[in-house]
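Private note to self, pasted from the team thread so I don't lose it. Backbone tokens:
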């Protein structure tokens, strides 16, 4: 009925999910990563996790639908790409109304095209001029809410009891969790997020910033505004080709891997920071070398640019604080 696809896999740090899962007895886990079921079991000891492990290099997934017979909740490795398959469409086919709390124009229309049999109820807000105080009352009777967390965040502990599932439109959950008052009861709701889809946008931003700095675009723009002309400005201080650069990516999940792929298409050297060991068979071919979090100083001293796409959580906040960046190359301190 419900498919949860969390590419980061780290459910243990999300108290909302832990609370929502407390009434579940069996969860099927379709995965590649070693240790995933054990980590989930530690986070949710009262839930039984049924293991369906696959080695994508040697094992066919043709039998997956039959192995999921009777399953209600599935946590899956995104390599299986359930997001685009008929399983999800079938799961949503019994849903009649989904409430969409949003800011972005065109979102409801896009959802309606993807799932024409579902009615999406629009609750649009302009954060600059509209108060969200009335949001809980407008969600009365709602069961599934797709939301912009900037809108829903302040109301997350005042939601109607009817709400069972919140799908955030952001990759991170911090815009919701930062509004939680731990002294008050947590909402009994399942929270999921979007792990995929942001890769192209972030990659475009990263490449754009690197080219702009290497080709002195910002200085050219300032000169243009001041009506100054310097013919060979790009030669003042050197101008490097992208293939001569090393980029360090902090966080090599779905977004980080997409950034790595784009950087590698320009023949850059790509380093990746991860919190746990990644088996060779699961490593991105676009990442030349992996580093653990504790090796961050070794990574930054190799880099011309550092791209941070880590989620905001207790283990990542202040990761670059103190004198960590003093290990960077003397000539370059570019943090994207």
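Design output:
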């Amino acid at each position: 009925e419900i498919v949860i696809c969390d590419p980061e896999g780290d459910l243990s740090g999300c108290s909302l999910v832990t609370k929502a899962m407390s009434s579940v007895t069996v969860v099927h886990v379709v995965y590649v990563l070693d240790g995933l079921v054990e980590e989930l079991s530690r986070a949710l000891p009262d839930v039984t996790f049924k293991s369906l492990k696959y080695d994508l290099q040697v094992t066919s997934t043709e039998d997956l639908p039959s192995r999921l017979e009777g399953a209600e909740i599935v946590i899956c490795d995104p390599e299986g790409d359930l997001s685009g398959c008929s399983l999800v469409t079938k799961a949503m086919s019994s849903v009649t109304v989904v409430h969409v709390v949003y800011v972005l124009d065109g979102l409801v229309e896009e959802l309606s095209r993807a799932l024409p049999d579902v009615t999406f109820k629009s609750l649009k807000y302009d954060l600059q001029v509209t108060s969200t105080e009335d949001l809980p009352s407008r969600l009365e009777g709602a069961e599934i809410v797709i939301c912009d967390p900037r809108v829903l965040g302040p109301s997350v502990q005042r939601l109607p009891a009817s709400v069972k599932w919140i799908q955030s439109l952001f990759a991170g959950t911090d815009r919701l969790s930062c509004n939680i008052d731990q002294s008050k009861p947590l909402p009994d709701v399942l929270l999921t997020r979007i792990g995929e889809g942001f890769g192209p946008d972030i990659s475009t931003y990263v490449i754009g910033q690197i080219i702009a700095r290497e080709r002195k675009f910002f200085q050219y723009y300032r000169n243009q505004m001041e009506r100054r002309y310097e013919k060979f400005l790009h030669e003042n201080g050197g101008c490097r080709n992208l293939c001569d650069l090393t980029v360090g990516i902090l966080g090599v999940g779905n977004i980080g891997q997409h950034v790595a792929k784009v950087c590698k298409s320009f023949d850059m050297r790509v380093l990746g920071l991860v919190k746990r060991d990644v088996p060779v068979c699961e490593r991105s071919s676009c990442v030349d070398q992996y580093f653990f979090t504790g090796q961050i100083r070794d990574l930054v001293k190799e880099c011309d640019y550092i791209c941070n796409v880590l989620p905001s959580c207790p283990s990542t906040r202040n990761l670059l604080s103190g004198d960590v960046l003093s290990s960077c190359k003397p000539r370059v301190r570019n943090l994207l």
